[in-house]
Every structure is written in structure tokens, then in C-alpha cells.
Amino acid sequence: MGVISIKINIADRVYPLKVDVAEEEIVRKAAKDINERIKTLTQNYEVRDKQDLLSMCVLHYATTALKLDNKNLIPDEGITEKIMELDHLLDAFLAKQ
């Protein structure tokens, strides 16, 4: 597509970014999620330092990402073999045509 310039506000700081048009929405949503997490942390803890709040945000998102990395989202359970079986059956059927 194309690259556009946008400004993202995170923790009361503005960051000018260049992003692909297709990624703009996800970048804006990520910034919104970060700001909401900072707001929640501020309300639940007596932490006011932006650096500490950002560090806690990073820890949350990194932990979530690592949990997802270690999790098999779709267990195979023989799906690959079944697909290969179907592929062979289709090849055999098409060969008869």
C-alpha cells in the first residue's frame, strides 16, 4: 500500500511514526491499550512515575506474548496426515478424469 506519517500519544508523550497504511489501525489500538493499562495501573497502585508505569506495561505485554509463544494455539492432532490423505485421494480422483 503506502507509508503514512502519524502521531501517537503514549503516557503523555507524542511520538511521530511512519507506518504502513494497513498497520495504522493496529498501531493506534496498541497505543490506546497501553494508555488504558497505564490508567488502570495508576488507579490500582500508588505509582505515579511514568517510567515505572511504562515498565509495568512492558512486563505485562511481554509476559502475555511469552505465554502465547509457549502455547500451541491449534493442536495438530493428526490434521497434517489427514490433509495429506485427502490430497492423495484428490490426486487419484483427478487422475481418473
From TrEMBL:
Pfam family, one: ZapA
Name of the protein in question: Cell division protein ZapA
Keywords carried by this UniProt record: Cell cycle, Cell division
Keyword Cell cycle found: yes
Lineage: superkingdom: Bacteria
Record-level GO BP terms: cell division
